[in-house]
């Protein structure tokens, strides 16, 4: 088991109180697994992704553990986490376009980063890997502003995976891209795993159809909790959680036309996480809700590798 | 959202301290002179007397009451600050809004003018103007200060306007048939009201400092007392050599306290308006 | 980059043009006869000398010529380096008077600007690091920037000059000395230099420290900082980058503050009777020596423009973005 | 109703308009009453610029845009134009001035267009409009924008447009920032408006959305039309290699990229096809640069087959900054 998250809770401090953005999640990611982490805004997917590498100033670790390759990650301890960052857990951020220091030549910046992390000389490897994503080593001698957006994104992808991390988190890396660029980035991610540069991967996205293309499994979150995890194919074709089912049904596909088949969304809004209601958080919007839903259903395995948090999921 | 700002405002030490200091001086400047029986230039006491129960800040070489001068001086200092600050803010806003909103050659032209006035050292220009034209009243002094100190404000407001202009709500207002001046006034300006206020505070402070320098050089108002003029007199009549510290310490301390309080208030407000700077 | 400098030079050229025009225009807007008002205040005893001066100044202004001619003549003599003749020190040419004073002003300004900038930035970055330091140093910084230059100068002169008696409080060197390259003279020069320098330095230092502290705090929120942190980069590296990037707006700030710093130097010189341009301005005003005043004004404007240009060059050297030709946002 | 004829947009960039940047060149198409036309393209294709030109937020550099045969730039009274043509934009949060209550967008319409309407009568109209976009007036009136969801805000903006009895709506990427569970409902609203006789210009980068709702599709590439025609034809039988490669790159829910013929082969296959424009008979080239290959189905020259496919492959990563123009 590469990654094992147990009952993780991370809260956001705000003026009106703590937002329970991540409220008790338990799951694991196997070696070599690419797990898509899907959810809408406010589902807690970004909080989960950030928690695994670096809590920002307003986030508080409220409980639970994270284990990577059998070692517990000290996620609440910013200093102690440094040892794991980059080497064990790494991140491709959403803001790739601005992730590089604008006043340093790229090669110099990477060199200084590596030296600071105690990695001897990574230049040769760096050049090799840039070539892998179709960049010449000339980019090392340039400033970020001299590169196009796509080039910057590729540089960041290479830098993030340079130390062969055990877990790579890709946070909404395709959301601002055109379809053709999305495909290329997604394929590159797949290539990282296939070439063994990273062991496992978490691809955070709001776009299920995209993550379906490259992920082995997909984990769906809703309102700070896990809804369903299943192999990608199963999740898309035979989802068991009513939320997943409605969500997948609401996605228009090429070929589906309004006149032929009118799709519908999910009525209602997710609950506020400042003071979330007890029990299943989807129950106000759920067509199947019944009395038992006042109690939080366990995230239970209903078939091999298929976990669902719903009393009605058999 | 508004109550949130208030919540932080009341808990922001910098803002509270700054506001209290300003208020105290403002009240002293407005109410104080009414409590004093004589004019600041009257020869009311013994010459060169150190502070005492009767003359709190002592007297000048000629037996004038330094405390009375201080209170009257606060008044003109605030007046010059407010008038100069308001005028500079207005000019800066007009130039900044128009340049930022219209863009194109209007922007090019206004930016050019702004840069020219920006590069010219304001005090030195004021020296020339005041010396030749014999500017000798607080109002006119404030006018000239206002007319020379707006450029950085215009630049800052232009940049803000420029970024707000591309926001969709501006387009939506245009689609609603709202005319440009109204869009600037009712859509863009409210969004940077905190920023405009901060700009005004800084201009207020800098107007006070510029006026004090002019007064000190001897180009101050002839019809009233100001803190800068007090410094000028103290220096001219060798208060320094005579060890009359009570003559030159209060006016300088007054200016420093007012301008410093304005700056601290500014930071406090910035923290209130800008969640990023708030301490959690 | 060529465009960047081209634009800057255009602005400076226009500024110079505006300054000269203002300089030419103001005496002509002055109520009454400028020559008469100048001479009435001039401390010249002999009537013959007064008459000579009247002839000279009337010719200088050239009031009998058409305006455009006056204006062109003004430019003509300016370009020949002729700024007229001082009334206060008649018949010394204004240019000579100014050239004698400039070294003193530069001697105060350049070290105080550079040192306060360097030290203020270092200190501000350092203060942003620790909460307690930030909380104690910050208010001090604000008090310093809010202090009128002349008042700090007076306080220093009073405390260290009059009371403690460590430093002299007037002039650039001892009254009993003649300028020479002797140790005695240089020592006296340094002693007289220190207080004005210190008061300029302190006020400016406060401003830079605060500016840097705020810049660093913004910079530490930047995406590249978050990325570096996520990759476990040590604080040392992150701070180094943040400092380097926060310096850039401070360079621009230096250009913006030049006018204020020059003004500060002028009033400080007045406090210490330091024989620089500030002292000249005071004398010019007291003696109604408008030629001297105007000449000093032009000199200062030229100096500020040159300094601005130097800063622009420095900016290009420290910010790679201006060099690539893509970041022409200036 | 709306007709674009040879419309171009050239931006002057740099000081004093030193360089020119062509965002749109020679685009012509129509939007009829009760018709949804989707304008599909990647970032930098000029699709948003076209939307803004139709809304008169950006000046047209060349060609004409006409409404019922009348050049829109000749309509002096902008209000008169905006009474008939309205827009909804991509980012609902950016459309609301954050310092005011959300229903200010309605008040602005009242102030500008119906100053005489009584308060009660107006409130009724607003409530009706809100109900027509399936919002509960009690839930949204009097709230600040940050208290509402993106979906709610976007519906309010549609309600705002509907208040004016418009005939044409420009919907610029209106659902790309919404969550998956609510976006389809907003999309359905567009279809409802169409049923009421409105013409809709639906600007999007998402092929599946365009396909879902539109009657006709215009595929833009680098400011020019690559292909256009009835949606089923364009998507069912794409004739331009660019359209094909776009379709191949769209992530689908039940088909993986790997299930399609491999990357290269798809492109190669497209390249091997002869250029549809040049194949077509001379007399079918009824519009400048476009040939009518089927009824109402136009296609541009593939630009030398291979070049087009290769260009896309290269572009794959090179251009992915979001369209800002």
Automatic annotation (TrEMBL), chain A:
Keyword Ubl conjugation set for record: no
InterPro entries referenced in this protein's UniProt entry, alphabetically: AAA+_ATPase, ABC_transporter-like_ATP-bd, ABC_transporter-like_CS, Oligopep_ABC_C, P-loop_NTPase
SMART domains cross-referenced by the UniProt entry: AAA
GO biological processes: peptide transport
Organism for this UniProt entry: Microbispora cellulosiformans
GO molecular function annotations of the record: ATP binding; ATP hydrolysis activity
Keywords associated with the record: ATP-binding, Nucleotide-binding, Transport
Residue ranges occupied by any ABC transporter domain in the UniProt entry: 3-248
Gene3D superfamilies: P-loop containing nucleotide triphosphate hydrolases
Protein name in UniProt: ABC transporter ATP-binding protein
Automatic annotation (TrEMBL), chain B:
PANTHER family found in the cross-reference section: D,D-DIPEPTIDE TRANSPORT SYSTEM PERMEASE PROTEIN DDPC-RELATED (PTHR43386:SF1), OLIGOPEPTIDE TRANSPORT SYSTEM PERMEASE PROTEIN APPC (PTHR43386)
Keyword field: Cell membrane, Membrane, Transmembrane, Transmembrane helix, Transport
Membrane protein topology class: Multi-pass membrane protein
Location(s) in or outside the cell: Cell membrane
Family stated for the protein in its record: Belongs to the binding-protein-dependent transport system permease family.
Signal sequence, renumbered to the chain: none
Residues annotated as transmembrane: 15-36, 78-101, 113-133, 195-219, 245-269
Main location: membrane
Descriptive protein name: Peptide ABC transporter permease
ABC transmembrane type-1 domain mapped to chain residues: 74-266
Domain of life assignment: Bacteria
UniProt-listed InterPro entries: BP-dependent_transpt_permease, MetI-like, MetI-like_sf
Matches recorded under Pfam families: BPD_transp_1
PROSITE patterns recorded: ABC_TM1
Automatic annotation (TrEMBL), chain C:
Pfam entry (one): BPD_transp_1
Domain of life: Bacteria
Entries under PROSITE patterns matching the protein: ABC_TM1
Positions of transmembrane segments: 9-26, 97-119, 140-173, 193-211, 246-272, 292-318
Keywords in alphabetical order: Membrane, Transmembrane, Transmembrane helix, Transport
Cellular localization per UniProt: Cell membrane; Membrane
InterPro entries in UniProt: MetI-like, MetI-like_sf
Residues in ABC transmembrane type-1 domain copies: 102-311
Main location per the UniProt record: membrane
Bilayer disposition of the protein: Multi-pass membrane protein
SUPFAM superfamilies according to UniProt: MetI-like (SSF161098)
Family: Belongs to the binding-protein-dependent transport system permease family.
UniProt name for this protein: Peptide ABC transporter permease
Source organism of the structure: Microbispora amethystogenes
The organism's taxonomic lineage, starting at the top: Bacteria, Bacillati, Actinomycetota, Actinomycetes, Streptosporangiales
From TrEMBL, chain D:
Pfam families hit by this protein: ABC_tran (PF00005), oligo_HPY (PF08352)
Keyword Nucleotide-binding: yes
Keywords associated with the record: ATP-binding, Nucleotide-binding, Transport
InterPro entries: AAA+_ATPase, ABC_transporter-like_ATP-bd, ABC_transporter-like_CS, Oligopep_ABC_C, P-loop_NTPase
Sections of the chain in a coiled coil: none
GO molecular function: ATP binding
ABC transporter domain ranges (all copies): 2-247
Protein name, as recorded: Oligopeptide ABC transporter ATP-binding protein
Organism: Microbispora amethystogenes
Lineage of the organism: Bacteria, Bacillati, Actinomycetota, Actinomycetes, Streptosporangiales
């Amino acid at each position: 088991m590469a990654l094992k998250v147990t009952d993780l809770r991370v809260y956001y401090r705000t003026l009106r109180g703590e937002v329970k953005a991540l409220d008790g999640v338990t799951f694991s990611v196997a070696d070599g697994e690419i797990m898509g982490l899907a959810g809408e805004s406010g589902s807690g997917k970004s909080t989960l992704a950030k928690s695994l590498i670096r809590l920002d100033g307003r986030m508080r670790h409220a409980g639970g553990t994270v284990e990577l390759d059998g070692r517990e990650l000290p996620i609440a301890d910013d200093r102690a986490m440094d040892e794991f960052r980059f080497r064990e857990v790494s991140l491709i951020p959403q803001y790739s376009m601005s992730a590089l220091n604008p006043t340093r030549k790229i090669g110099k910046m990477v060199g200084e980063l590596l030296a600071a992390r105690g990695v001897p000389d990574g230049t040769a490897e760096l050049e090799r890997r840039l070539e892998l994503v179709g960049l010449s080593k000339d980019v090392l001698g340039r400033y970020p502003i001299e590169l196009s957006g796509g080039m910057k994104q590729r540089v960041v992808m290479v830098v993030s995976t340079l130390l062969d991390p055990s877990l790579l988190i890709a946070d909404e890396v395709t959301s601002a891209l055109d379809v053709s660029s999305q495909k290329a980035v997604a394929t590159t991610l797949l290539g990282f795993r296939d070439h063994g540069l990273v062991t496992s991967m978490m691809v955070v996205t709001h776009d299920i159809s995209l993550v379906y293309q490259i992920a082995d499994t997909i984990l769906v979150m809703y309102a700070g909790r896990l809804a369903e995890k299943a192999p990608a194919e199963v999740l898309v074709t035979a989802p068991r959680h009513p939320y997943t089912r409605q969500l997948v049904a609401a996605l228009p596909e090429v070929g589906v036309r309004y006149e032929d088949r009118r799709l519908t969304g999910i009525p209602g809004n997710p609950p506020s996480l400042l003071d979330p209601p007890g029990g299943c958080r989807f129950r106000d919007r759920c067509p199947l809700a019944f009395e038992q839903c006042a109690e939080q259903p366990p995230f239970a395995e209903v078939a091999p590798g298929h976990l669902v948090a719903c009393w009605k999921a058999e | 959202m508004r109550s949130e700002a208030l919540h932080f405002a009341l808990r922001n030490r910098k803002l509270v301290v700054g506001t209290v200091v300003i208020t105290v001086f403002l009240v002293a400047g407005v109410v104080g002179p009414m409590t004093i029986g004589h004019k600041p230039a009257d020869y009311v006491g013994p010459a060169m007397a150190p502070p005492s129960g009767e003359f709190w800040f002592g007297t000048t070489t000629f037996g004038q009451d330094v405390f009375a001068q201080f209170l009257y001086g606060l008044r003109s200092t605030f007046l010059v600050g407010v008038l100069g600050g308001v005028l500079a803010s207005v000019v800066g806003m007009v130039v900044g809004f128009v340049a930022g909103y219209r863009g194109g050659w209007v922007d090019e032209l206004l930016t050019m003018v702004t840069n020219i006035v920006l590069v010219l050292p304001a005090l030195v220009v004021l020296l020339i103007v005041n010396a030749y034209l014999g500017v000798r009243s607080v109002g006119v002094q404030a006018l000239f200060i206002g007319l020379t100190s707006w450029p950085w404000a215009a630049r800052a407001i232009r940049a803000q306007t420029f970024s707000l202009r591309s926001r969709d709500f501006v387009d939506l207002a245009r689609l609603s048939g709202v005319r440009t001046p109204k869009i600037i006034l009712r859509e863009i300006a409210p969004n940077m009201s905190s920023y405009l206020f901060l700009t005004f505070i800084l201009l207020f402070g800098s107007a006070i400092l510029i006026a004090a320098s002019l007064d000190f050089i001897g180009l101050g108002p002839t019809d009233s007392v100001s803190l800068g003029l007090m410094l000028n007199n103290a220096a001219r009549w060798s208060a320094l050599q005579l060890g009359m510290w009570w003559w030159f310490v209060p006016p300088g301390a007054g200016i420093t306290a007012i301008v410093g309080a304005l700056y601290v208030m500014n930071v406090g407000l910035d923290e209130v308006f800008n969640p990023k700077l708030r301490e959690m | 980059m060529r465009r960047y400098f081209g634009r800057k030079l255009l602005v400076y050229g226009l500024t110079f043009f505006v300054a000269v025009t203002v300089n030419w225009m103001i005496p002509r807007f002055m109520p009454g006869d400028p020559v008469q008002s100048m001479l009435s205040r001039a401390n010249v005893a002999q009537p013959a000398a007064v008459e000579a001066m009247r002839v000279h100044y009337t010719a200088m202004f050239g009031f009998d010529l058409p305006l455009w001619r006056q204006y062109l003549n003004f430019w003509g003599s300016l370009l020949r380096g002729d700024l007229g003749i001082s009334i206060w020190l008649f018949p010394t040419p204004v240019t000579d008077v100014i050239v004698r004073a400039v070294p003193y002003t530069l001697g105060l300004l350049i070290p105080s600007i550079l040192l306060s900038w360097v030290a203020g930035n270092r200190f501000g970055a350092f203060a942003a690091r620790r909460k307690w330091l930030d909380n104690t140093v910050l208010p001090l910084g604000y008090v310093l920037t809010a202090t009128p230059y002349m008042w700090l100068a007076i306080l220093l002169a009073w405390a260290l000059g009059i009371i403690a008696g460590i430093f002299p409080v007037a002039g650039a060197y001892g009254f009993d000395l003649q300028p020479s390259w002797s140790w005695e003279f240089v020592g006296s020069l340094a002693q007289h230099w220190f207080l004005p320098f210190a008061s300029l330095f302190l006020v400016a230092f406060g401003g830079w420290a605060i500016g840097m502290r705020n810049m660093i705090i913004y910079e530490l929120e930047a995406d590249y900082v978050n990325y570096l942190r996520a990759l476990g980069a040590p604080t040392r590296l992150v701070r180094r980058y943040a400092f380097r990037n926060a310096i850039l707006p401070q360079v621009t700030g230096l250009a913006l503050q030049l006018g204020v710093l020059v003004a500060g130097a002028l009033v400080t010189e007045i406090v210490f009777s330091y024989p620089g341009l500030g002292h000249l301005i005071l004398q010019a005003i007291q003696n109604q020596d408008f030629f001297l005043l105007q000449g000093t004004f032009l000199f200062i404007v030229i100096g500020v423009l040159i300094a601005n240009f130097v800063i622009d060059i420095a900016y290009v050297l420290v910010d790679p973005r201006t060099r690539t030709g893509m970041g022409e946002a200036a | 109703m709306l007709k674009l004829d040879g419309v171009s947009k050239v931006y002057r960039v740099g000081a004093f308009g030193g360089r020119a940047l062509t965002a749109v060149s020679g685009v012509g198409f129509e939007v009829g009453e009760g018709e949804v036309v989707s304008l599909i393209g990647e970032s930098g294709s000029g699709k948003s610029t076209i939307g803004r030109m139709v809304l008169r937020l950006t000046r047209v550099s060349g060609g004409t845009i006409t409404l019922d045969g009348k050049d829109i730039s000749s309509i002096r009274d902008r209000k008169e134009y905006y009474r008939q043509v309205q827009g909804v934009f991509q980012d609902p949060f950016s459309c609301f001035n954050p310092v005011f209550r959300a229903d200010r967008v309605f008040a602005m319409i009242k102030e500008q267009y119906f100053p005489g309407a009584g308060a009660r009568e107006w409130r009724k109209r607003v409530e009706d409009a809100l109900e027509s976009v399936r919002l509960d007036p009690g839930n949204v009136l009097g709230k600040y924008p940050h208290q509402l969801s993106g979906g709610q805000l976007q519906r309010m903006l549609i309600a705002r447009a509907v208040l004016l009895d418009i005939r044409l709506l420009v919907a610029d990427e209106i659902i790309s920032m919404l969550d998956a569970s609510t976006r389809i409902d907003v999309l359905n609203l567009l279809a409802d408006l169409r049923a009421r006789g409105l013409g809709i210009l639906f600007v999007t980068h998402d092929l599946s959305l365009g396909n879902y709702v539109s009657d006709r599709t215009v595929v833009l590439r680098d400011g020019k039309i690559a292909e256009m025609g009835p949606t089923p034809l364009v998507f069912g039988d794409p004739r331009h290699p660019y359209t094909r490669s776009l379709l191949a790159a769209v992530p689908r829910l039940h088909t993986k990229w790997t299930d399609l013929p491999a990357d290269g082969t798809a492109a190669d296959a497209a390249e091997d096809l002869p250029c549809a424009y040049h194949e077509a008979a001379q007399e079918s080239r009824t519009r400048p640069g476009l040939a009518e290959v089927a009824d109402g189905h136009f296609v541009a020259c593939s630009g030398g087959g291979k070049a087009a496919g290769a260009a896309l492959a290269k572009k794959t990563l090179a251009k992915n900054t979001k369209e800002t123009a």
